[in-house]
Every structure is written in structure tokens, then in C-alpha cells.
User: Fold this.
Amino acid sequence: MDRLTLITACIPPCRRLIDIGSDHATVPLSLLRNGTCEGVLITDINEGPIEVARLRVEAAGFTYACRFLQTDGLDDVDPVEGDVLLISGLGGENIARIIERGIDKLSLFKRLILQPQTKENKLRETINRLPLSLLDEIVAVEDRRLYVVMICDFSKNAADDPISEIQIEFGPKIMERIGSLLRISSRKTENCADARTALKRLSADDAIVPIDRSRIAYVQSKYDKIARRARYHQRDRQLLESFDRWIFNHI
Ligand SMILES: C[S@@+](CC[C@H](N)C(=O)[O-])C[C@H]1O[C@@H](n2cnc3c(N)ncnc32)[C@H](O)[C@@H]1O
Assistant:
């Protein structure tokens, strides 16, 4: 599934969506067309994207359902105006900064959908530090690039442990899912010499559905990226060793 289609599918039915950094307003328009939300607050830090969004919304006949606001992140957003928050297509550090700075406003949202273009690890660290729970991580594939969509809510269970370094890199919910798949497919992955081979065999299993195959592809690409750096950095070598141990504990 491509990035914007997946983001659209992750938004639950809502009274009003708040879309931070909306730019072309493609997701709000899809949601208004399919009736998932009744209205949208469309924001952007820049004037140009707001104008593009305004024109597209007008052309689609949804001006009555939208309000436009030029602001940095959540700065001038009144959270009572919406019940679901979307921040997609921005860098992970930028999204982390926006939610940290707007933390007092987040408790009013029933869902937060966050999709970083880069540095997912920085965003996971911030989510873990704030009173937010990461409920799921789904991976979109577009032009052979992988994008993680993080689904969160404002809650923290007392039982929530701080997440480990490998969870920050590979994604706690992605690892949870892959852990269950490895257990189910253990006959296909037994006797694998290394984590790379285990992931390759898992992905080749006919029983794996596309949404899980994208999660496996995400982990494989992270693994390869860390492996390239590991020649020079001890921390990366340790990360790979921990991840290898984690894989072998699951097969
Ligand atoms: C690549 S576009 C993403 C558009 C759309 N959300 C998507 O997922 O395709 C990023 C947009 O975020 C806006 N932006 C960047 N930083 C922002 C911030 N701090 N607050 C609000 N908008 C921001 C940019 O002006 C740009 O229009």
C-alpha cells in the first residue's frame, strides 16, 4: 500500500481531523470523500502550502468542512477543535519537537497518527518519554521506499517498560509482530545461521500477508543500514549483536 493510502486507512472515524503540515491536503480530501471525518483543520507553517490546500479543497467542493490555519506545529491549534491528530510527511525530529512542545494539548485526541519521513528512532524515543502509548506501527511501501506509520494514543500503562535500544531502532510494535511470526514459522527458520537468513526465509513464507512482509522488509533494511555503519561504530556492532540474539530467542 502506498504512503498516503495507508495513512488514510489508519484514521479512525472522527468528528474533526487536525492535519499538521497538510501541504496538498490529499489525506483530508480522501477522508472527507469517504465520510471518515466530518471536518478538517488544515494547518501548515508556510503560506504557500495553505493556499494550495485551500484551492484543492475548494475545487473538490469541501470548503464548508475545512478551516485553514498557518502555524508552527500545534502552537495556535485549539485541541477542542479536533479529536484525531495527524502529522505526516515531516522529519522524525520535527514531529518529535511538535508533540513535545504541544504535550499539554495531546490528551484531548483519541488517536495520534504520526508518519516520519526520517529518523523514526528519534520519534520513538520521544513517544516513549511522553505519556503516549505506541499502539501499532504499519509500514507503507512506495517506489521501493519504506515509511512507518505510528498509531498512538494519550495513555501510559504503569506496566509499560522503557523501550530498549533495539526497539528504538527497529520499532517495538514491528518487533512484537515479527517475534510472533518467527514463532509461528519456526519450522521454516530453524537452523538459520544468522538473523539476515532467518528474516529472508520468513519473508519467503507463503503464509505471510503483505502488511507483515512490509514490516519484515523494514527490519531487513534497518539491519543492513546498521550493518554498513557497524564497521566504524561499536554501538552499531552492539545493536546488531542484540538484534541477532533477539532473533535467535524467537526461532
Ligand atoms: C512533505 S510535506 C507533507 C505533506 C503531507 N502531510 C504528507 O504527508 O504528504 C511537509 C509539509 O509540512 C510543513 N511543515 C514543516 N514543518 C512544519 C511545522 N513545524 N508545522 C507545520 N507545518 C510544517 C511544510 O511546510 C510542508 O508543507
